[in-house]
C-alpha cells in the first residue's frame, strides 16, 4: 500500500533540527519510492528551492499574522529565566492543524510526521486535535518539557543536568528560585497534559533522548523508537587534507582542531568555555612536543572583537551555508571537538565522521551513539576540561592511529547513517502505524 508522508517543521534548512528534518525527508523522497513511500515537507520558512518542500505561512491575512505575533509575545510577558535555551509557548493556533486535516482527508497525508515545533507551526492544542496517524521525531526536549527546548544545562561539577521538572511533572514547588514572573514552563506543560490525550509514536535520534522520553511524566507511556539521523554519504565524504587546507587557506603543516556551532563560542550549551580550558591546559603539556604548533579552527561565527587568551592561533571561518565548504573544513581538520553539555544527536560529529575525521567529545547525550570510544575518536569524562585535553592529546599524538581513527569513522558513518537504511527503518514504522 502506497503511503503519503507529510513532514511538518518550522524551517527546512535553518538550524540543526531543520537540517535533520530535511535529511529525513530527503532520505524518504530519494529511496522510498520503491517501497511505496511519497514524502513532502511542509514548512513555514522555506530556504531551499526543493519542489518537494511546501513553504509559506497559513495565516488568512496580514492582519491575523500581526495579531498572532502580538498575542504570542504578550503570552510571555514578565517571565524571566536563567535557562539559555529557546522557549516556545505554541499559542495561539496558527491554522496549520486544519490544513493537515484537509491534506489527510484528500489522501495527501496518510501519516503526518512532526519535527521541531515552535511558535509559528502548530499550537499545543492543534497537535492534540490531529486525528491522522502521527510520528514525532524529537530533535530536542520541548515535546516532553514545558516551554523550554532543553532543560537547564549542567552546572559546574555536575555530570548531568539537575533540572528534573520534566520528570516530576512541573509541580510549583520544583520551580528554580532564580526564575521570576509567571511560571510559563509549568503553564505550558499543563496545556500539553490537557491537550494531548492520545499517545503519539515518538522517534528519537539517540538512546539518551529515548531515555529522557521514558523518564518524562508526560510521555513515559508513549511508544518510543530510536532512529538515527541519515547523512548523504556522497556529499559528506573524505577529501584530500592538503588540498582542502590549500583551498581554505589554512596552514598546511600544523595540527588543526575544528570546533563549530550555531552561534560559535556564544552558546553555553555547546561548551566552548570547557573547550578553551582544555586547550589552555594542553598548551602547557605540549610545550616541548610537535603538537605545540596546534591551531584551532572555529566555524559558526566571525572573529570577535575580543579574542580569548588561548596561546594557540585561532582561525575564525564564519558562518558556512553550503555543504561543500563544510566538507572541505572537516577534511582539513585533524580532529573535530564537540564539547557540548547537551546534545540530542550531534550532527557536526556525524558529518565529521562521514568525512573521515575523528571526533573528541564528552561522554554525554547523543554523542555517545556517534563516537565509538577509542575506535573513531575519544569520549572524555563529563564535564572535565582535563579529561577533554587528554582525549585530544590521545587522538593527535600518534599519526598512524589518527589515520586509523579517520578510516574507522567513515566506516561507522556508512554502517549507521546510510539514508537507504534510515529510510527502511521509517518505512517499517509507518507500515506498523498504518496497520494498527
Quick summary:
With 436 residues, the protein is α/β, with parallel strands linked by helices. Helices cover 37% and strands 14% of the residues.
Mind explaining what this structure looks like?
- This protein has 436 residues and is of the alpha/beta class.
- The chain has two domains: 3-230 and 419-434, 3-Layer(aba) Sandwich (Rossmann fold), CATH 3.40.50.2000; 241-416, 3-Layer(aba) Sandwich (Rossmann fold), CATH 3.40.50.2000.
- It is built from 15 helices and 13 strands.
- α1 crosses α15 (419-434).
Beta-strand share of residues: 5-15%
* Helix count, DSSP H or I runs of 4 or more residues: 15
Task: Determine the CATH topology of the largest domain.
Answer: Rossmann fold
CATH architecture of the largest domain: 3-Layer(aba) Sandwich
Q: Which sheet architecture does the biggest sheet show? A: 7 strands, parallel
What is the strand tally? Answer: 13
The general outline is: globular
> Ranges with pLDDT <50 over ≥5 residues?
none
H/E element string?
A: EHEEHHEHEHHEHEHEHEEHEHEHEHHH
Q: Which strand order do you get reading across the main beta sheet?
A: 3-2-1-4-5-6-7
Mean pLDDT score: 92
Amino acid at each position: 500500500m502506497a503511503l503519503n508522508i507529510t513532514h511538518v517543521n518550522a524551517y527546512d534548512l535553518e538550524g540543526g533540527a531543520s537540517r535533520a528534518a530535511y535529511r529525513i525527508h530527503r532520505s524518504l523522497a530519494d529511496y522510498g519510492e520503491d517501497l511505496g513511500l511519497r514524502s513532502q515537507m511542509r514548512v513555514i520558512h522555506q530556504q531551499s528551492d526543493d519542489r518537494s518542500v511546501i513553504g509559506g505561512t497559513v495565516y488568512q491575512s496580514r492582519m491575523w499574522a500581526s495579531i498572532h505575533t502580538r498575542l504570542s509575545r504578550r503570552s510571555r510577558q514578565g517571565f524571566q529565566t536563567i535557562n539559555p535555551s529557546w522557549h516556545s509557548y505554541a499559542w495561539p493556533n496558527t491554522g496549520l492543524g486544519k490544513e493537515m486535516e484537509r491534506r489527510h482527508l484528500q489522501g495527501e497525508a496518510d501519516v503526518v510526521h512532526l519535527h521541531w515545533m515552535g511558535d509559528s507551526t502548530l499550537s499545543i492544542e492543534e497537535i492534540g486535535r490531529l486525528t491522522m496517524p502521527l510520528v514525532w521525531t524529537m530533535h530536542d526536549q520541548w515535546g516532553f518539557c514545558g516551554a523550554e527546548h532543553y532543560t537547564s544545562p549542567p552546572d559546574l561539577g555536575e555530570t548531568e543536568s539537575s533540572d528534573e521538572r520534566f520528570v516530576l511533572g512541573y509541580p510549583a514547588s520544583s520551580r528554580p528560585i532564580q526564575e521570576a514572573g509567571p511560571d510559563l514552563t509549568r503553564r505550558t506543560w499543563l496545556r500539553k497534559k490537557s491537550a494531548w490525550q492520545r499517545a503519539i509514536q515518538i522517534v528519537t535520534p539517540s538512546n539518551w533522548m529515548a531515555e529522557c522520553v521514558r523518564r518524562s511524566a508526560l510521555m513515559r507511556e508513549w511508544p518510543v523508537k530510536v532512529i538515527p539521523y541519515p547523512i548523504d554519504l556522497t556529499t559528506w565524504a573524505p577529501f584530500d587534507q592538503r588540498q582542502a587546507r590549500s583551498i581554505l587557506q589554512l596552514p598546511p603543516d600544523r595540527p588543526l582542531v575544528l570546533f563549530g556551532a550555531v552561534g560559535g563560542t556564544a552558546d553555553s550549551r555547546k561548551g566552548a568555555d570547557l573547550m578553551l580550558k582544555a586547550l589552555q591546559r594542553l598548551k602547557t603539556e605540549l610545550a616541548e612536543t610537535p603538537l605545540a604548533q596546534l591551531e584551532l579552527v572555529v566555524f559558526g561565527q566571525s572573529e570577535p572583537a575580543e579574542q580569548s587568551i588561548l596561546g594557540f592561533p585561532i582561525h575564525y571561518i564564519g558562518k558556512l551555508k553550503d555543504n561543500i565548504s563544510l566538507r572541505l573544513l572537516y577534511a582539513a581538520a585533524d580532529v573535530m571537538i564537540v564539547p557540548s553539555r547537551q546534545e540530542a544527536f550531534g550532527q557536526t560529529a556525524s558529518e565529521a565522521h562521514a568525512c573521515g575525521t575523528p571526533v573528541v567529545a564528552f561522554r554525554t547525550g547523543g554523542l555517545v551513539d556517534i563516537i565509538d570510544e577509542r575506535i573513531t575518536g575519544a569520549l572524555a569524562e563529563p564535564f572535565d576540561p582535563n579529561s577533554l585535553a587528554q582525549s585530544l592529546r590521545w587522538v593527535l599524538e600518534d599519526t598512524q592511529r589518527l589515520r586509523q581513527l579517520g578510516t574507522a569513522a567513515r566506516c561507522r558513518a556508512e554502517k549507521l547513517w546510510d539514508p537507504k537504511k534510515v529510510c527502511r527503518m521509517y518505512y517499517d514504522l509507518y507500515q506498523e502505524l498504518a496497520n494498527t
